[in-house]
Design goal:
Shape: rod-shaped
Number of strands: 0
Low-confidence stretches: none
Order of helices and strands: H
Largest sheet: none
Mean pLDDT: 90
Strand content: under 5%
């Protein structure tokens, strides 16, 4: 192998190494982006869990009101029945 062939091969290897370094840099940027996305997804999941918890509270609130309303009606009906019974006795 003469000096010219060695020089050409060395130039080719240098070019290939530069190309590989550019690809590695791109992969490192991509890896960092994915890492940032993972952190964001974790925060979004925490926020979603909070929203779900609040939605459960909101969903259950009308039931609580409905239950109180039924108890009030039942209490009024029972009071009415006792009033009739006691008025009949007296």
């Amino acid at each position: 192998m003469d000096e010219k062939e060695v020089w050409e091969r060395l130039t080719s290897v240098e070019s290939s190494v530069k190309s590989a370094h550019h690809r590695i840099d791109s992969i490192e940027k991509l890896t960092q982006s994915v890492s940032d996305m993972v952190v964001e997804v974790k925060h979004m999941r925490e926020d979603l869990n909070k929203v779900q918890s609040e939605m459960e509270k909101v969903k259950n609130r009308p039931l609580k009101f409905y239950d109180k309303f039924l108890w009030a009606i039942a209490g009024a009906a029972i009071s009415g029945v006792f009033s009739l019974v006691f008025s009949a006795i007296s």
